[in-house]
Write a structure and sequence with these properties.
This protein is of the alpha/beta class and 335 residues long. The chain has 14 helices and twelve strands. Strand 9 and strand 10 form a beta hairpin. The chain is globular. The mean pLDDT is 96. Bound molecules: guanosine-5'-monophosphate and manganese (II) ion (MN).
Amino acid sequence: MENIKELKNILSIPRDIVITSHRNPDGDAIGSSLALYHYLIRNGHTVKVMFPSEYPANFAWMPDADKILIHDIEPEDCNGYLKKANIIFSLDYNALERVDKMGEIIGVSSGVKVLIDHHLYPENFAEYVLSDTTASSTCELIYDFLVMMDEKKGIDLTVGECMFTGILTDTGSFKYSTSPKLFRIVADLLERGVDDYVLQDLIFNSMTEKQLRIMGHILNNRMEILPEYKTGIITLTKKDYEDFNIQRGDTEGVVNQILMMKKVKVAVFIHEQPTIVKLSMRSKGDFSVQEICRKYFRGGGHKNASGGASYSGLSATVNKFKKLLPEFKEQLDAL
Ligand code: 5GP
Ligand code: MN
């Protein structure tokens, strides 16, 4: 961000600020939003955090998570805050369509727009942009942002806990997207008092018995392995959601479980939502699921973790995915 001094100037007097992040917010969306929120309110700003849809229950412990506004639930209030904001932060997303109806207002807002994100191919809608696709998480970039603002002192325990949450979840507990720089940041957060053990327990050991049993059922009965393509697919129908009373958060992380098999390099979770079919893809090593999501499923994300959607029904979507695997056979053989 070359014009950071300008932004620092803008932030030098109290402002009305809205921090936004993407639909189906994950640990990094919530962590980065709340980290920045706590830093900004300590500096006298009036700040609202706003997501298009609700966040998973295992993040409810986060400081001021209960103050987060959900556009699906309170659209009028949310639109009002967005319209009067002097500054709108867009965190952990690269395109306005990722925030649904909020995007339309952000697009025409006369407020200052700031994008901080680590997804590939960021859209050009913000005046101030900190985009680094090599970063582990948006939380890592919030840390960088405060360093660039010469505000490292603003990283107190609360801000640190929020940052740690996003780093932890977006790296799959330090399994991918790590770097010496990231571990230095994490070491700094621990030195500021962040308790990594307590936070991991709060975030990951939070399943209900029902959720764990659903996970077992899904792995046992809804997973298909295509050995010749080193690919695993899990599909869930609308009927599955009804029959087993599966809620959205119950399938969190199921796509990553497929990759626990040595022989599997690509994992896909295809699930029927009320009006669309959503795809969630993961890969190991030098294979880009981002390319598949972008080219074929109107989506995107990262090389090894991407998502997309389809409007042609569940079985047609599964068939479409299977039919495009031969195109990648050579690449998969090389893995
Ligand atoms: P997940 O599979 O966990 O929902 O998402 C994995 C990654 O892909 C995340 O970084 C997320 O932002 C991105 N992603 C998920 N769904 C979509 C989508 O529909 N469009 C785009 N552009 N990115 C997505
Ligand atoms: Mn992220």
